[in-house]
């Protein structure tokens, strides 16, 4: 497969009151043609900095980037017409209608006017096309932003949180649209915090934490690399959960307390869990192996899993030991490698 986006060793530092902050610390990323690729990371991990640097909005301190086989930012004028992007919150003139907004963008970009109606249909705004944007909900503005990025029918589409503000039906429609675009030959890079959607829609993912890549590959391969050994434990009485956590922790198990159950790992056999609890007259109503999902893998690799009694602060990401190893080189398949206003490239 042909890579439409390649990033190698990307560096970006900022000077702050606390000293030098490394927003990107040798970040690598590869996206193959015709895929829906998920770009994931916690707040402050470097996702938006990466996208803005890739699109020429921020100057990097080091590294190499290519779009559609051309090195950027030097070749941005040549590839801009083939890339559509939304980074951060899109902004539009409130007194303009959606059709007026897209028509102005089409004229500015040399796009034929019939494309305006096509993209309005694609994103579900056909019947509200004449309404002023100031009457739109957040989800409708997000649909308009996606429409603006699609005007030129780009080869590469980069979307930052496209489901922001959408209702469940809208999220499903957006999912279907992204898959249809990929099937038509377009490559889609999707940044989102809705990890269940990423797992459903994406062919491959890159996970970033503290400015470094901690995992990359197809969704199935990334999940396979982090098979969970945890067991979900429910008790006859939910009030026994804290006591059961103490018993299992004393027995050497690793225990995470959830609202009405426990997640227990580090135990050779499930029978040891039931025996330890039964000895204290604590009786199990459910004992289920936990299948690894993208959310649990993400939390493990980025070190952002909630900790009882603690309040994690923004940018307080600490790579777990697994994440540290992954940051050096955990890739699978063929992925191993040494504020716009309403869109970009329109």
From TrEMBL:
Top-level taxon of the source organism: Bacteria
UniProt-listed InterPro entries: AAA+_ATPase, ABC_transporter-like_ATP-bd, ABC_transporter-like_CS, P-loop_NTPase
Segments forming domain ABC transporter: 5-235
PANTHER family for this protein: ABC TRANSPORTER, ATP-BINDING PROTEIN
Coiled coil: none
Name this protein carries in UniProt: ABC-2 type transport system ATP-binding protein
Family the entry assigns: Belongs to the ABC transporter superfamily.
Source organism (scientific name): Krasilnikovia cinnamomea
PROSITE patterns in the cross-refs: ABC_TRANSPORTER_1, ABC_TRANSPORTER_2
Keyword list, A-Z: ATP-binding, Nucleotide-binding, Transport
Xref: Pfam families: ABC_tran
Molecular function in Gene Ontology: ATP binding; ATP hydrolysis activity
